[in-house]
Amino acid sequence: MTPLEDAQSFVIGACPPLPPVTVGFEQAEGLVLAAEVVAAEQVPPFENTAVDGYAVIAADLVSAPIELPVVDEVAAGSATDRVLQRGEAIRIMTGAPMPAGADAVVMVEETERVGSDRVLVKSPVPVGAAVRPAGDDVQPGDVLFTPGTIIRPAVVGVLASVNAREVSVHPRARVAVLSTGDELVEDGGPLAPGQIRESNRRMLAGLLRDTGCDVVDFGTVRDDEAALEAVLRRAAGECDAIVTSGGVSMGDYDVVKAVLGRIADMRWMQIAIKPAKPFAFGTIDGTPIFGLPGNPVSSLVSFEMLARPALRRMMGHPRLARPSHVAIADDGLPRRPDGKVHLVRAMATFEDDGRCHVRGARAQGSHQLAATALSNAIAVVPDGDGIPAGAEVAVVMLEG
Length: 400
Ligand code: AMP
Ligand code: MG
Prior knowledge:
Blueprint: H1 4-13, E1 21-24, E2 32-33, E3 37-38, E4 48-49, E5 53-56, E6 66-74, E7 89-92, E8 104-107, E9 111-114, E10 118-121, E11 131-132, E12 143-145, H2 153-161, E13 166-170, E14 174-180, E15 184-185, E16 196-197, H3 200-211, E17 214-221, H4 225-238, E18 241-245, H5 255-263, E19 265-270, E20 273-274, E21 278-284, E22 287-292, H6 296-314, E23 324-329, E24 333-334, E25 341-350, E26 356-360, H7 369-373, E27 377-381, E28 386-387, E29 392-397
Parallel strand pairs: 6-7, 14-17, 14-18, 15-16, 18-22, 20-25, 23-26
Antiparallel strand pairs: 1-13, 2-13, 3-12, 4-11, 5-7, 5-8, 6-10, 9-10, 19-21, 21-22, 23-29, 24-28, 25-26, 25-27, 27-29
This protein binds adenosine monophosphate and magnesium ion (MG).
């Protein structure tokens, strides 16, 4: 059996980052920067007020309270040509440019209007009060973001603020997903003897989207060599990667093995984990293909442990693995030695003691997806006799 870490480094190593593309910043959200972003403009673009109030000359207020004539008004989006003189005030709204001559803003709460054209300023303010200098956030030439930065919404906001309209990013991986097996039906009708409803492809498509990939659904392919070969060749031509479900187990009579053995450069693995021991990885004309086992829980675990980090690398992500914590196994996680690491689906929560606590899902069979579906974590239980109640165990979060 292959240790999980060896399988992971082999698979990840065979999935280099996709070449960068240039996209508009609005299309870049969720993608990873491939080149640094240098500011061409300053933010804010001009000196402006942080509050609604009155632009003043601070030296006029030393003996406040004091009444000043209001000689003009300036709103955000406009400007005034008037140069503020000693003993005057200009009404000003948040974001409006500072009038020439003014060196501070008194917030409206510290004032009282007197008639239509005068204001009582109640107390003095220092020079620069409530003034936001030009370039206070960003200076031209600032290196704002480096390669590997994930373009989160706030990053998009910054790109917009400096007018960086196009950015170089790693594209979303376009990933083909298909399931294989004559037993699978998906038309919603009654099940004939031996049939089951197709479920993995729907799950895997969702996991792929969640990973940030564009999904191309190639459907369910019958156990027929010619049909499978045609679909796989088309998928390899159209997509950056392929994810298949089913047909990679030991001793299977399966057309998946026959076809991939012929048209792909494959490595068939028995990974020292439970569930998800069988796994295949290879390339068809350079396109990576992840052969996930058909048992639904195995398919999920295999995707999480092997396909997801590799696909993230293709999309330039700096962090490939899910977040992990050391948790307390409240009820214990018993097991028997078998040479494998057990990946126990579990619910992990942070509790009032500041610790992460974990409890195994009620059913751990590789066909029991219903029990796994509500899990948010995988407890990594090393080979041996398991984790006693109250002891620590590593958990990999399935979210975040
Ligand atoms: P296989 O890996 O093809 O040997 O399949 C292992 C088990 O998973 C069998 O019980 C299959 O019926 C089941 N299975 C395979 N593919 C799927 C699928 N797409 N959806 C649900 N169950 C599946
Ligand atoms: Mg099968």
